[in-house]
Amino acid sequence: MTPYVDNHAGARIARARKFRRLTQRELADLSHVSYSTLTKVEQNILPASPSVIGALARALSVPVTELTGQPYLDELRQDHLDGLIQPIREALNIYDLGPDPDVAPRPIIELRAHAEQLCELVRATQIKRVATELPGLMAEATTLVHLAHDDRHWRLLAGTYRTAYDVMSKLGFPDLSAIALDRLDWAAQHASDPVLGAMRQYLRAIVYLRASDYRTGKRVIQLGMDRLEYAEAGRVRDVMTGQIHLGAAVLAGRNRDESSAQGHLEEAQRLADITGPAEKVHWMSFGPTNVGAHRVSVLAELDKYPEAVQAAEDLRIPDDWPPSRRAHHHAEVARAQLWTGQTDEAFKSLGEARKLAPQQTRYHPLVRETYAGLESARRRMPESFSNFGSWLGR
Fold it and tell me: Cα–Cα distance between 315 and 343 in angstroms, integer?
């Protein structure tokens, strides 16, 4: 099987390094990535883990997306998704222009039902449909808040910004994701809703996690916790608090702070035992299952791949758990299986992710790097392996 010479993170890292006129040894020293790991990643002998990509991106002073190759424009065009990005950008930019005279908003009950439907579709990974319908909904919600300053309207608008963040994150547009989060914070402040404000900080911390800025991410996590002190005690606050602990656990794991990661997982587990499954509380997918999935993720971030595979085998995921979350979990399990030499199982996990959430999986950088790692292993793979690569655009 012929290696994909230029279509993996290692090749992009090498190009960026040479542009900066750095030797491999110099980049290894700057990034605190071992020289052996760097050379093997550049040669596509080892897959580039998110932590390695993040460390190298910071050392090279480039966005992580430059090394992952996002957004994947050719695939976006093939899926007719490229033309849906600009309308969302425009809808995010009209937030302060007042009511649009050409927009007649539907009643709040209809708009809220539409917003809930789009959240359901995001969880079902129907990204194209959501991206198509979202700009119109955002325009109606924006006009509505300027016509009648009601907390319910502001919460509705904040929800549309959250959905915009989800879509832009899945399609690989971090700049628009960040704008959506700023708009979410603006709407949350107008709604005087500390839970929404805390949710914004949780999602913001995930952005810093992806950029490997762990110090700032930790500060943002604390800010989210501080916001929740003003929220009414009860299940909603417990769910958001637990979800923030899960985000903090993954952030600490990638920063190799095992003690902090385990502490956050334990606190999240305590809260999950109280709340039970809470997949629709602000659409956070919180609950015992999500704690178990995050435990797998944290173990992988700590490079404890055998333990991550075992934890995944011990985890029982209900059939009605959101497809988007299940697919992401399979992608993370595939990475751990690859690193433990279970190439057949890793490819099966990628196949499960594709079956559950094809659009999300196609644009997931972890899936692409895991596939590149499988290809470089040069093991005998089924014919469907090449088909999978073609589908990814490799």
Answer: 20
Q: How confident is the model at residue 393 (pLDDT cuts 50, 70, 90)?
A: confident
Annotate 158-202 with DSSP letters as a single string.
Answer: HHHHHHHHHHHHHHT-HHHHHHHHHHHHHHHHHHT-HHHHHHHHH
Q: Which of 188, 190, 192, 248 is nearest to 216 (CA)?
A: 248
Print the domain residue range for 177: 77-191
- Is 50 exceeded by the pLDDT of residue 1? no
| 311 found inside a domain | no
Cβ-count burial 133-162 (b if 16+ within 10 Å, e if not): bbbebbbbbbbbbbeeeeeebbbbbbbbbb
Domain count, the chain: 4
First-to-final CA distance of the chain: 13
Does residue 309 lie within any of the structural domains?
no
Give the global pTM: 0.90
Q: Say whether both 292 and 200 belong to one domain.
A: yes
What would the pLDDT profile of 263-317 be if each residue is shown by its tens digit? 999 999 999 999 999 988 888 889 999 999 999 999 999 999 999 999 999 999 9
